[in-house]
Backbone:
């Protein structure tokens, strides 16, 4: 049987399950604020963060589309910013609601009456404050959910559809490119008809 060396058995692990190697002090954890809805903001978003958000919004006659990062698989826009010295990620639609209503409570959700995950237009027919139960009832009524199962009518899925819309709008609002992205076809296929 080999001799037992207690000091070399296994490195110590501190209370945060951080591996502590001999001769190294554990680094303090980087503060990260959860993107879970309801986590209070440490401070209102900075003017620079608001400007960066607005620069990523393309206004159309209907929805105002966020053309920044898109999360997979749900297809919602995401924005990262520093909040109270910590990095934070929230949904773009939730950020738009924060700009209009201030910090949101833990039970507040953003309801998309327009059913566009990238829409950040706060107002009737688009994005409004609601509850989870009302949001799910709307999703079931419009066919976006079948009970507890999301119903994807678009073969690209929510993420694929959202990325197509975002990519169509990266150069600004073009009705033909947006119509093609919404329909799931190539923009060149919706060119104006010719006589011959």
Residues:
């Amino acid at each position: 049987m080999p001799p037992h060396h207690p000091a070399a058995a296994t490195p110590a692990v501190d209370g945060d399950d951080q591996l502590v190697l001999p001769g190294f002090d554990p680094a303090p954890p980087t503060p990260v604020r959860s993107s879970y809805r309801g986590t209070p903001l440490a401070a209102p978003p900075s003017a620079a963060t608001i400007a960066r958000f607005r620069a990523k919004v393309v206004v159309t006659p209907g929805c105002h589309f966020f053309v920044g990062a898109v999360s997979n698989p749900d297809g919602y826009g995401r924005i990262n910013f520093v909040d109270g010295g910590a990095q934070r990620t929230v949904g773009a639609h939730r950020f738009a609601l924060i700009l209009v209503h201030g910090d949101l409570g833990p039970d507040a959700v953003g309801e998309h009456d327009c059913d566009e995950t990238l829409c950040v237009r706060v107002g009737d027919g688009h994005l409004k404050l609601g509850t989870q139960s009302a949001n799910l009832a709307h999703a079931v009524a419009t066919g976006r959910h079948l009970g507890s199962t999301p119903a994807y009518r678009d073969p690209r899925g929510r993420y694929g559809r959202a990325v197509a819309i975002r990519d169509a709008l990266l150069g600004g609002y073009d009705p033909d490119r947006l119509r093609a992205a919404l329909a799931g076809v190539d923009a060149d296929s919706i060119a104006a008809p010719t006589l011959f």
User: Anything to note?
Assistant: The chain has five helices and twelve strands.
